[in-house]
Amino acid sequence: MKLAVLQVAYGDDEPMDERVERVAALVREQRGHDLVVLPELWAPGGFAYREWVDRAQPVDGAIGTAMSAAARDAGVMLHAGSIVERPADGETGPEGRGLWNTSLVYGPDGSLVATYRKIHRFGFGAGEPKLMDAGEDVVLVDLPGGEGRAGLSTCYDLRFPELYRRQLDAGATAFLVPAAWPAARVRHWTLLAHARAIEDQCVVIACNTAGTHARTEMGGHSQVISASGEALAMAGTSEEVLSVEVDMDAVTTWREQFPVLRDRRL
Ligand SMILES: O=C(O)CCC(=O)C(=O)O
Known about the structure:
The protein has about 270 residues and is of the alpha/beta class. The chain has seven helices and 14 strands. Helix 1 packs parallel to helix 3. The chain is globular. The two termini are about 35 Å apart. The relative contact order is 0.16. It binds 2-oxoglutaric acid (AKG).
């Protein structure tokens, strides 16, 4: 499976609609890959809390429409990162916030194949938990070419291993993790991605943000980690495209060679 992980850098000076056009063009350049992955909230801004209400959109709003077209034009499966979702039908959610941090995944024909609402909200009472409802559903998608199944999660979710165990038990062989993870804790980002890969014997495909926005420096270091815990690719701290060939059969081979999952005691 040929992957392109697009570590997008942005600052406060780039208007959202220009960024959507720029990133759609970058996705179109990835023709020839099977799967393209974008970071969390790259259009509205991962830490631009004050702008979220204004920048919220339904799944089929301007960002979703542009990403669907880019996936179709490039002929790739696209994990388009996440948007601040405000559902068109006025759904408000159990806590009445009416916004979610929602990931969008498109097939190579531009059809929406999955959405995932971030379950663990980051901010300790401010930011996400103040403004957004929490997702409730564990979501997996089929990888292109019958290469296995990927569990969807977002950024702060990476700190909660029980989510990944649930994805594993639902058949995951890979985890797709878009993020807006700050530079201040980037060591946690790389260590936790390795830990999730090793403990669940899954490939971790983790796409972070770069640049500085809303006075927060992003950590970069997007990464693809094999099921045995090797870094197959690791980005630096600027905008960068990681183009990586991943052997998904190696997941099965590793699980047979080192069958640690058989020793779980539930
Ligand atoms: O857990 C962290 O340190 C960062 C999480 C985060 O920035 C997020 O979920 O948006």
